[in-house]
Amino acid sequence: MKTPVRVAVTGAAGQIGYSLLFRIASGAMLGEDQPVILQLLEITPALKALQGVVMELKDCAFPLLAGITTSDDPMVAFKDADYALLVGALPRKAGMERSDLLSANGGIFKPQGHALSEVASRNVKVLVVGNPANTNALIALSNAPKLKPAQFHAMVRLDHNRAISQLAEKTGKPVTAIKKMTIWGNHSTTQFPDLYHAEVEGKNAHALVNDHEWYEKTFIPTVAKRGAAIIEARGLSSAASAANAAIDHMRSWALGTPEGDWTSMAFPSDGSYGVPEGLVFGYPVTVRNGQVEMVKGLDINEFSRAKIDATAKELEEERQAVRQLGLVK
Ligand code: NAD
Ligand code: LMR
């Protein structure tokens, strides 16, 4: 058995937390030979509810769960954390865009970025799930001068999984037949789910579907607006699928991506694919030994160029907005 690693989770008493913590403790995230210590952060009024979740975690008698701590202080919850999943934030309600949460949630990520910078493991891997995820990750990394910006990711894996599932339904193939899906840009309605490089049983997905109208008018909006559709149907934002995507993202980051495939992760742009430097942008990536490598050199056609530019423009506007709020320099 390996030495336990420390996994910090914020918003641990919330909806996503209720699904996420049990999967982490079961070994689904880091592997069935990796013990974990959960370090759970909540706001003070939610600490009582969190105690109930802790009781349930204990009642599962997970063999890999080597300890649990709870706190309302990020400096305590992030101490020596090897992984940090920043979930704690308000979810949107029907009729809101995720960017409407910027001023409400942005303020959470400045002190959390600072605390991670001060007390987390120097190799901490941070995944921001709380919306608007990309720009919250930008706020956190901008306030974490002692860590590298690339240690901060935002989650576009839920969009990635949604895109795979929609394409599998359309083509009548299993999800396992689909490789090289990419979500470019923001976890928002401007995101660009790319079928030009995706493959179904090794064949180009866009060519195989051979229906650009479906791609543009049905597939892209269905994936990009899925969060709102779930809020409309459930009265609450997605939770189990979001937790599952967070598990998938961290598992890929820690344990790598399979040969012949890639995944989508949002992290600070180095200017590749014409995206302004520093924006936390969804890209295709491979991961080996914990090292994330952007897939470079893909052909970007006119349609894709316009989509990538539109989502970059939205992220640039969000960056300006949080600069004005004093959350980013
Ligand atoms: P929720 O309201 O059920 O839970 C959020 C929890 O965060 C609450 O328990 C709250 O007390 C806690 N919290 C609030 N401020 C905090 C702080 N400063 N520190 C620690 N904890 C804090 O919400 P949820 O459904 O679990 O969703 C959480 C976030 O995840 C929302 O912003 C939602 O929009 C987002 N989300 C993102 C994706 C994605 O794909 N990126 C998917 C689904 C949901
Ligand atoms: C989602 O995509 O389901 C989440 O980001 C929740 C939301 O507000 O859409």
From TrEMBL:
Keyword NAD: yes
Pfam families, A to Z: Ldh_1_C (PF02866), Ldh_1_N (PF00056)
Residue ranges annotated for the Lactate/malate dehydrogenase N-terminal domain, each copy included: 5-147
Residues annotated as binding substrate: R92, R98, N131, R162
Gene3D superfamilies hit by this protein: Lactate dehydrogenase/glycoside hydrolase, family 4, C-terminal, NAD(P)-binding Rossmann-like Domain
Record-linked CDD domains: MDH_chloroplast-like
InterPro entries on file: L-lactate/malate_DH, Lactate/malate_DH_C, Lactate/malate_DH_N, Lactate_DH/Glyco_Ohase_4_C, Malate_DH_type2, NAD(P)-bd_dom_sf
All copies of domain Lactate/malate dehydrogenase C-terminal, residue ranges: 157-320
Family affiliation: Belongs to the LDH/MDH superfamily. MDH type 2 family.
Protein name: Malate dehydrogenase
Originating species: Geothrix rubra
